[in-house]
Amino acid sequence: MGKIGLIIRREYLSRVKKKSFIVMTILGPVLIAALYGSLIWIAVSEEVEHFTINVIDKSEVGIYSGIVETNKNSNINYINTITDLAQAQAAIGDGSFQGVLFIPRDPLNNPSAITLYFKKRPNLSSVQSIEWQLSDILESLKLKLNNIDKEQFDFVRTDVHISQQLIKDNGNAEDVNSTPYILAAIFGFLIYIFIFLYGVQVLRGVIEEKTNRIIEVIISSVKPFQLMMGKIIGVGMVGLTQFVIWTLLSGVVVTVISGIIMGEMADPEQMKETFEKMNQKNIEQGAESPIDMQMIGSFLAGTDFVVMIGSFLFYFLGGYLLYGSLFAAVGAMVDNESDTQQFTLPVTLPLIFSIAIAQYVLKNPDGSMAVFFSMFPLTSPIIMMVRIPFGVPWWEVILSASFLVIGFILTTWLASKIYRIGILMYGKKASYKDIWKWLFYS
Amino acid sequence: MFFSIFAQTNKHRTLIIFSAKNIHKSYAKHIALQDVSISVEKGKIFGLLGPNGAGKTSLLRIINRITAPDSGECFFNEKVMTADDLNRIGYLPEERGLYKKMKTGEQAMYLAQLRGLSSREAKTQIKIWFDKLDIGSWWNKKIEDLSKGMQQKVQFAITVLHKPDLLILDEPFSGFDPINASLIKNEILELKNNGTSVIFSTHNMSSVEELCDDIALINQSRNILSGNVKEIRSRYKTNTYAIRFKGNVIQFTNALWTGAKILDKQTEDDVHTFHLELLFNSTLNGLLQATLPVVEIISVSEIVPSMNDIFIKAVGESEGKIIENIQTNLTE
User: Fold this and answer.
1) Rounded to 5 degrees, what are φ and ψ at B60?
2) d(Cα A274, Cα B87) in Å, to the nearest integer?
3) Where in chain B is the domain with CATH 3.40.50.300?
4) Which residues of B touch A6 (CB under 8 A)?
5) Number of alpha helices (DSSP H) and beta strands (DSSP E) in chain A
6) pTM (two decimals)
């Protein structure tokens, strides 16, 4: 084994054997699973409110009777025992009801005067269900008043959802769904987290060697460049190991936990009901479903995972090597961790910038800004990763990849110049002027 | 007969394990080394001396190829030094440490392998040295759990376990208690007897006298004094003697006449100790002839200057010269 191999092995093993690594590697998927599990749990077992509302109907069109007739929500019970508003307000909570719904004299022309009084705030879905019910009642009253047939009205009312079709190079058209957005966001963010997490590990490792004063012992056996590259590669392999274990374990744990949760509901009839309930709830709340079963299906079908994982690995490694060498240089410049702030900011700025503009790239993945930043090596690992799920011409990927390779060769070369001088400077922090000089040392 | 002559000539031919020729090194703002040359004989201990900031560490880093000189060359075994020669060198830097979280044994294995040992060789050598220094039971202990002195022992073992031909020790005794310091000193001497050459950098002049065969004294980036320790000490002799006697002090001083200058005198009970510098052409024999009739002489010994005195004197002289140079330059 060459000397660089020895260094890689030490850097790798000393991190992988650490308790914190083992704990995080096992705990990571458990945390993800716990999040996933609790989402399901919350959706399934959300607390249901039961309450009674006293309706004061001042209208002449009989809203109250309409409400009672059309009430499908078994959780809400309507009464009209008290007809005086002030009296009813005073009796909220004391009496047999928890809220007062006031219907004004002319609700058809003045629907916003309808008021709900309460002492304890009801949840959003209950209020929404009352609103929808009242809208329906008022709508059908209006239809009647204007002599419009309900069927005619339904026919006239039109919702437009444009269906999008992407025509591929081979002439086939394909459905466009929202999958790329989610994938792009997830992978872009993963790259950001991994580069940051492991870049900082490189920085810490370099500072550790400086403060432990072992650096001079080691570089009397190996070249500083070998030590720097060995460290960067070793830490990068720790990152890959963690990524692979997390992916595998997450899959296993998520399957097991959803199995347990589903298993509790024993019969499939009930399970189906649960899903319906979940979807029903989402529809009731008018929100787009976060866990849309149909979407997950198309998500898995419509994605080229080989391309995604392949490009993730490439852009993670490229970006990590580029930033890792910069972090190593920063570590060499300072004497202890508290001094790093001043120098890490210029290094992390392009990373933070990338994640900030990622949302604009998501909106317009083929815009000129997106294309430019997916070429620029300091931003391309994140931005290109965000663009790839939307489909990127192959020549752009190749161009961006070669820029990234050139970029990391260049930064590694610059960083090694700073590194080999910085590591031997004890007890003082370098200034930007010093670093400029170091770059021109032979 | 022929063989014995052959052996003799061979014995007198001194082998130079390491030499540096005309080394220059300057940093952005200051000059670290100017035209420094040293040569280390095989099997000898070579002292590299000098005040703080003189350029010793710069020279040691150049020898270890940590930094490159601006000009000048290093030779190892009389050939231009290459990176492969580093496996034959053991370096204990002044600023030294170990990975705190790593186990002692693993750490020694790692550093030995970086110096080119196979893992099997490394293991046997580590066992030998750990037992020798009585640290065998620390194999599985983390460095952070060891005391500073213990860490120094581990570091010494790591420096020597790949059997280097040239050992470079920068302040090796700092951080040791007297017992362990003498243990390490004996190990250094044993290594020397087995043929290892040593470059030894220190501020502790008494250990120089005890250990070093040759020295180089570096001050303000130049090599101002080098050579054999005994030779240098006799070169700095000032014809001074310490003489102890019983008897009349006035008669003694009268007997000296103008032949000697009294540098120092002490009296304890009825024994007097005089430090005398012989003047003009006086000899010790003449002095004894003059004083023997008047006092009872107990002992006479030559005062050889200590390395400490020589260090201070040489550094002072070289700085005087430099100041003179500057002044003449100014007046010109």
Assistant:
1) -60, -35
2) 70
3) 15-228
4) 110, 113-114
5) 17, 6
6) 0.73
Q: Report whether A163 contacts A285 (CB < 8 A).
A: no
Q: Which residues of A touch B (CB under 8 A)?
A: 1, 3, 6-7, 10, 14, 208-209, 212-214, 216-223, 424, 426, 434, 437, 442
Lowest mean pLDDT among A5-19, A154-168, A294-308, A318-332: A294-308
B96 to chain A, any CB pair closer than 8 A? The answer is yes
CB-based contact, B86 to chain A, within 8 Å? yes
CB of A379 closer than 8 Å to CB of A373 = yes
Residue with the two structure tokens 């820029």 = A403
Verify whether the Cβ–Cβ distance B28 to A437 is below 8 Å: yes
Which tens digits make up the pLDDT trace of B87-115? 899 999 988 889 988 999 999 999 999 98
As assigned by CATH, the class of the A51-149 domain is: alpha beta
Subunit contact B98:A214, Cβ cutoff 8 A: yes
How many other CB atoms are found less than 10 A from the CB of residue A167? Answer: 9
Helix (H, G, I), strand (E, B) or coil at B169: strand
| DSSP label of B22 | E
Spans of all domains in chain A: 3-39+179-285+295-439, 51-149
| Among A6, A10, A220, beta carbon nearest to B64 | A220
Chain B residues with CB under 8 Å of A1 CB are 113
Domain B15-228: which topology? Rossmann fold (3.40.50)
Q: Check if the beta carbon of residue B165 is closer than 8 Å to that of residue B126.
A: no
Say what the ipTM of the complex is.
Answer: 0.79
- C-alpha span between A146 and A90 (Å, rounded): 39
